Structures are given as structure tokens and as C-alpha cells.
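PT: before anyone asks, these are the final sequences, not the draft ones from last week. 1025 residues across everything. Please model them as a single complex and drop the result in this thread when it's through.
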Amino acid sequence: MSYLAHNTQFVPTGFRKILYLNWPVIILLCAVASAGFIMLYSVAGGSSTPWMAPQVKRFALGLVLMVGVGMVPIWFRRNMAGLAFAISVVLLVAVELFGAIGMGAQRWIDLGFMRLQPSELTKITLVLFLAAYYDWLPTTKTSHPLWVVLPVIFILVPTALVLKQPDLGTALLLLFGGASVMFLAGVHWAYFATVIGAGVGGIYAVFVSRGTPWQLLKDYQFRRIDTFLDPSNDPLGAGYHITQAKIALGSGGWTGRGFMQGTQSRLNFLPEKHTDFIFTTLAEEFGFVGAFSLLVLYVLIIVFCVASAINNKDRFSALLTMGIAMTFFLFFAVNMAMVTGLAPVVGVPLPLVSYGGSAMLVLLVAFGLVQSAHVHKPR
Amino acid sequence: MKRPVKDLEQSSRRISRRALLLGSAQLGVVGVLGWRMQSMQVEQADQFRLLAEENRINIRLLPPARGLVFDRNGIPLAENEQNYRVVMVREDAGDVDEVLARLQTIVAIDPEDIERAREDMRKLSSFVPVTIADRLRWEDVAKINVNAPALPGVSAEVGLSRRYPYGADVGHVVGYVGPVSDYDLAKIDDKDPLLQIPKFQIGKTGVESKLEHTLRGSAGTKRIEVNALGRVMRELDRQEGVAGKDIQLGLDERLQSYAQARMDGESSGAVVIDLETGDLRAIASAPSFDPNLFVRGISVKDWTDLNENKYRPLAAKAVQGSYPPGSTFKMVTGLAALEAGVISPEDTVYCPGYTNVAGTRFHCWKRAGHGNINFHDSLKHSCDCYYYEVSQRVGIDKIAEMARLLGIGVRHDLPLSAISSGLAPDKQWKSEVRGEDWRIGDTVNASIGQGYVLASPLQLAIMTARIATGKMITPRLIKSIDGVEQASGLGESLGINENMLRRCRQSMNAVVNDKRGTGARAKILTAGFEMAGKTGTSQVRRITAEERARGVINNADLPWERRDHALFVCFAPVDNPKYAVAVVVEHGGGGSTAASPIARDIMLQALYDGPPPLEAYPSAERGRMEEQQKRIAARIAQIKPAQDRV
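LR: through. Structure below.
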């Protein structure tokens, strides 16, 4: 009996569920995280402190959390989705208020052992909540304007809160992650076409407005756009980061300059080399071969998630899995586009590779949901 | 909630369809990312690699050691000394104020320097070494090294700086170096990257300047890796530069120092030429200046002192000064006349004490006149009327031709800052430059080295050298470069009738060695070292008929700057000439009194290659000479400790 056939015929219970986890995804996640450990070791100048060791610990914790979440039946998530979303929005409002009261531009809540960013949490709870919403909504009403406006509000409220922090990167992830769940749920394509058309028109209007009395953006915002479009305009100012990142990436060549031999990162020409720009270090030291391999690993994770979603007849599970996969995709695609100079620098880390605690834990919990959906799919 | 199965299946199909659609869109994005990576990392990798290398690699120039300058005996005239400076790195020092305070208790440092260093440390990055004090003595460096544990971040560094051990004695010849200025850069078309180094030392005057390219050498390079803040991480490789070439001058430092000391107190110039090679054994100009002052950056006070001194210490009078040669020019006029055949050596001219030419009366220095006088006696007694007469017969153009043949009115190209060409005037010159016709009175004036005629001590020495040898001697300052001997200054025959030259030399011999000769007081007694010469006294003012009627004012009663120049040219030994010497004492009075003793002393010093025995002097002078020798030895000794001075 084949693995697939076995999978579809038997409903696992108890600890036997471990055998039914989506193991390829787990192995791929470990592979990607390991690439991250190696790079954190390298950018610290060949030292496990200050970045690699905590990252390994958090990843181990995250793996346990993921498996634990994966064991819990998926319908429990469905029932808790509304509450989870409500809590994260409240938390978002809370940090916004605390920030206003006088804690500076703080975006996180200190839990003692880690700092939780509500915006990270929201990425998952929004997808979770939308998946539950569309599971609840009869499919015939999916494209009804009223039932379209409602999820749009669900998306825009946290997006607006995050944008105000300001965290453009996360806001974009929320927007696109939510939109993709709506798209998957079957909302009529005409809505998307309208929004995209309006967006393009809006951008066009912004550019046309420049220099006129009804200018839509501030001058400094326009200058940022200029810098993005042509970083060489301002090589020592705002364009410095992206210019140095591109130099690091490009100088890697086919096979890279060798482990710990990247001059751009070792000599501190690279900004944020352990967080948002860690991919450039990898590309510099391991070249096109290394960078492309990492991209393939990410794509394989997406492929396994999409396969799992397509094979899942439960609407909630399929939407959740796809939504999380899409969010994950947006994460690494935006980061890579950013460091290769295809997108403006918006501050999105490379998932599982960049140094950072709450992002990694939240992401692994999200994959725990994916595992749960996989284990508990109807057979 | 329970839904019909059909609804579920339909929904599942739709999700699958849209999931695949979204998946393909994602694949499209991934394709773009992959393509972007490929284009940057594979296609443009070389460009980016280059940019990365430019980021991290800095090229620093390593200044080469400057070539040294030696005298003919290998005595260093310009050398590179180790220059110790104390530097401090802020980030290593910890408490900067505390460390500076401790440093001040160990070595004396100007509070101004400390203040400047503090300022620099505030402005520059914490890892940049800041110089606190320069030109420390070795003992101070040793103290700092011993106390190193108490002085974190402080270290002594060593560099090279130029030093002239004989200071003012060679100041005019060797010149000095100084930091390259914007003015220098604008003036010279030189792409040498060394010049871009801040405060790089280049030759400013003298040999240092004229042979700059020989002495400078070429830069080495050091490739260093720096981080984003500019901190040096490591040295990747270095390529040593080529040190500048050493230069040996024909100059004799001991003779030069002697000449400078002998002329101390006068405003004068003296040149000694070696007749076998044309080497300039001494080019002395008094007073002089200490080139070391300029290397360190001259103070306003020193600069003002040098500039306001009426004796003009900065002028190299030996080569740069232009003086009417006076009676020392009479050899030129005489030889021109003899060579042209307008008079024979035995022909006499009657000297009544004056000559009337074109309505003007020209006086002989001896009011009573010399009576009938031939060539030999005219030179011996320096009779003016003889030359007034023969110059009219031979004409100014022939005289100018002879002057140029003997080296007057010709620029002698030496690697020195300012070389005077002097002037051998002729008809063409006057019409071109002055726009006037030549008048016979001009010829008469020129015949005795007055009027338009001008010569430098160097030119007078060359004239004497050429008369003494009959050969086309050209002066040579640079004896060898990097051990390669330069072309000798000994040329072909002048083409002047040897018989006439011999008679001229015999007359010059009589000037010194005949009891009644005008230069008799410069007589050398040592057999085989006898000297021949010619005195000269050139007026710098016009003596009016009125004044002459009242009686010419004695030089000693005139203000210094209106007194006559004193000149003397000589060669020795008479039978086998080895050296020619020319001395000009500005406003020194008579050539026989002021210039000839100096020339004789320098000549003796050259002949004996050191202080001569007192027997060389007439017995009456020996006591005075002994005193003078002691005085000069003391003065030289005073200069010499410059070697040990820092």
C-alpha cells in the first residue's frame, strides 16, 4: 500500500498522528533554517554568538510548538479563529496606545521570555479568521457585495493599524495575504480587476501630481521613490544600503566568495546584514548556486503546501493552508525582491533565515496549523 | 454546520483551480527573482566584484627615500634623518585627558600642540592616529617606550625628514625642500601621484629643486583592506618604491665652509673652479641662510630677518649677482685688441691721466698718469687710458665677442635656482634693448668693465679659468649621479693666439708678484704655489666733474651702499694652474684691499686642501693670519655641531 493511499484511508489518532505529519515540509523548514544558522554564524565573524545560538534555540522551540499545534484537531482552530483575530487586533490597538502614551515607537509586547509583535501574530490570525469566515459563508454568497465588503473591512482594520506604526512591509503582507484568501475562496475576479485597476490609476495619479499644487505625497516621499528607482542618485545617503546590497549580491558570482569570505558583509559595508539583508550575505558567500538553492527550497515548501491544500476536501483547511503558504511566499518574495533591487526597501525579513524571535515562532506556529490541517483532513 | 456534499465538492474544485492559478502566479514571481539573481550574479558579476573590491581596497602611496647629496669627498650635504613623532589613537587610550597629562609629565610638549591634537581627536574617527608632537629627540622616544604601559594608545612613529648638516654653508647651492603647495602644483606639469600626498616634500630651490626628479625616486604602493568606516583591517600587499638617486657634487665642503667663514660679515660672492675638470669647488655667497629653517617651516621672525637684511642673505651672489667687473675686464679688452692685431704687446700708449673722447674727459685712476705704457705694464698698473685707447681701435663688437668667448654675458647652465647671464654689450644689443645708437663713450666705459658691462663672480671665475688654460672650460656642479660620472667641464682650445694668452698670464703674474703690482698684497710666498690675478674696483655711482675738482670722496666716508664694489680674479699655481678664483665684495671699496686677501686665502686653502702653513704669507702678515685662521676655525667649529643638533 502506497504512502498516499494509506494516508487517505486511515484516520490517525493519538501519537500515531506524528506519522501523518507533512514530513517533507518539516524537513524543508529545517533545511532553510539551517541555511540561516550558517549565515548568522558567518556574519558574526565566525561566532555562534550573538545571533546563531539564540536562533537555534528558538527554532527548536518553534519546532516543538509546530508539532504540538499540528496534533490538535483542526476544527478547534476553526472555532477559535474569531477570538484569535479579535485578540490580535486588540493587541495592535494596545501597542498603538502605549506607543502614543510614551513608550516610543514600540511595536512589541514583552512577554518575559520573548517580545511578541502583534503585527506578526496578525498575519496568521487574519488568514485564520478569513478562512473560517469563508468556511462559514455559504458559497453562493461569496461574491455578494455585502459579504465582500465585510472581509475587506477585516483586512483593512489591522492593515491600517500596522501602517500607522509605521510598518509598510507587514501592512503589505496583511493586504496581499488577506486578498489571496478572498481570491482562493472564490470571490468574483471582477472585484480584483477593479481594485488592481484603481491601484494602478492611483499610482499614476500620484506621479502626475508631483510638482503640482495638489501633490499627493510629500517631497521626501517622492525622493524615496527616486532613490528606489535609481539608487545611484544618492549613493551615500538613502541609496547606500541598496547599492551595497546589490554589490554584495552581484559580487558573489556563480559559486560565491566562500564561507566567511564575503568582504561586503565582513567589512560592514552591508546594512542589517543579520536581519533584512541576510540574503545578500548568503548570495555573496555562496553565489548564484547558493542563492538559487535557497529559492528552490522555499518554492518546494510552497509546492508541498499547495499539494496538501488541493488534496484537502475541507474548505477551512484548504483555505488556511493556502493562505499561510501565500503569506510565507510573500515574505520571502518581497524580501528577495527588496535586496535584489526589484522592490523598495520596506523592511520585510527573510522568513526562517533572518535573525528574529517572534517572526520565527509565529511562522512555525502557522506551519503547525498547516500540519494540523494535513493530519486531520477528511479521508 | 452541515453543508450538502455537492457544495463541498464544488468549493473544493474552485479552491484547487484558484490555488493552481495563484501557484502559477507565484512561480512567475519566483522566475523573475531567479532571473534577477542570474543576471546580477552571473552576467554582471564582474562589475559587482569590481565595485566590491573598490569598496574594500584602498591604495596608499609609500613615499620613497629621497636621494642624498654629497660633496666631492663623500661628505653628506643633504641627508634624511629619522624623525620621531608621538601619535595617539583615541580608542586605545581610554581616558584621553589622563593619558595626555601623564605624557606631559614624561616629555615636554608644547601646550599648543596638545590643544591641536585634542581638536584633531574630536574631529577624526576614534581609530585614526593623531600626531601629538613632532621631531622628538631619541631620549624622549625611549622614555615613551619605557612608560608604554602607563600610556595606552600612545606610540612613537618614525619617518624621514630632510636635514642639511652644514646648514648655511651650502644653503644657496643645495637649496631646501618643503611641502608641496598649490602654487607648486599649478606651476609644474607633473602627474606623479606622490605630489598628491599632503605635505609631501619637494625641492624648492637649488639642487634640491633643479634635480628634483633625480632625487625624488618613485612611489611604492601598499594595498590595504578597509571596512565601511575606513578602519584599516589588514595590509594585502606592498610594493616598495624606488629610492631617489644620490648625487655627488663637485663641491668641496671644507673649502666651501672655509670660504663662507672667510667672508663672514661681508656681502660677497666667491667661486672656485677646478681647472682640470671644471668642477666648482666652492660657490660661496655671504651672508647665507640655514636651509633647515625652511624644512621645518620658517617662522615669521626668521623670514622677516632674512628679507630685511640689507646684505640680502637669500641671494646667491656668487652665481646670481651682476656686477660691473671693473678692471678685471681689462684682460678681455686687451686680448680682443691683441687678437685683432690693432696693437702689439710692445706698442705703447701715452697716459696723461685722462683721455678726451668725443668731448668728454675720461680719467685714469691715477691722476698723474702712467706716461708711455705697454700691454704688460697697463695690466700690472691697471692703467685705464691704455684701454680707453685700444678699445676705440678694436671696437665694441670685437670686445663683446671676446667677452662671450671667455664666458661673460653667457648664461652658464647650472642646476641652481637663479643664474645671472651678465652682459657683454655690443651695438646690436643697445639698439635692440635700449633703442639707441652705440656711442664711442660707451665703448670707452666698457673697456674698463664699467658702463653696461655686467658679470657674476661665476663668470669672472670662468673667464680666469679660460685665460689660465686657454681651454673652453665649462663649470660642472654635478660630479656624479648614482655613481655615474657626469661629463667633465674641460673643453677644446679657445682658439686665441697662445702667445697673447701667455703674455696676458705673465702680466697677471706681475699684478700679484711684482712689488708695484696692484695686487701685490695678495702675494703667495710658497714656491710653486705662486698666484696670478687681477684687481678690480667698480663704481656704483657717477663721479661728477665737480666732485673730481673738489677731490673724490674716500670710500670709507660714503654710505655702504654707495661704496665701490671690490673684485679680484686669480689663478694658481702660475706655472701649472689648478684653480681659478673670483671674489666680489659688494661695496667693499678697492679690489686690492677688500677682495684680493679673501681670494688669496681661499686659494691657499684650496691648494693645501686645508689650512695653509703661515710661511705661505709674507712675514709681516703672519701674526694677523694666525689669528684669522684661529677665528675661522672657531667659526667653522661653531657651524659643525649642526650635525648633532636636531
